[in-house]
Write a structure and sequence with these properties.
By secondary structure, the chain is of the alpha+beta class. It has one helix spanning about 5-45, and strands at about 50-55, 60-65, 70-75, 80-85, 85-90. It is rod-shaped and about 80 Å long. It is found in: Cell inner membrane.
Length: about 100
Amino acid sequence: MEQQSPVGALLFQIIFLVAIFLMFYFLIIRPQKKERERHRKFLESLKKGDKVITSSGIWGTVVEIGDRTITLKVDANTKITFSKEAIVAYQPGYEKKEEKKD
């Protein structure tokens, strides 16, 4: 029986660890990074009048946008202020109107 050289075993372990790191990167880190970027662009595109949903499931219409907060009108006389990060999506069926560029 031949014994594997210590250098070969070490090289195999290094290659194995690099492969695990690459799998971790492409399956976890990269998709999260893309999702964060998509959410950032979504938040930047919000305008007054947009119909949105918060992470807690509250549906409302944007009435005010601050640097770090967004105020939603959720009922006739009810407005609630949220952190921008709490806004996760447009309401189903809501079509955002594009501004015409002349």
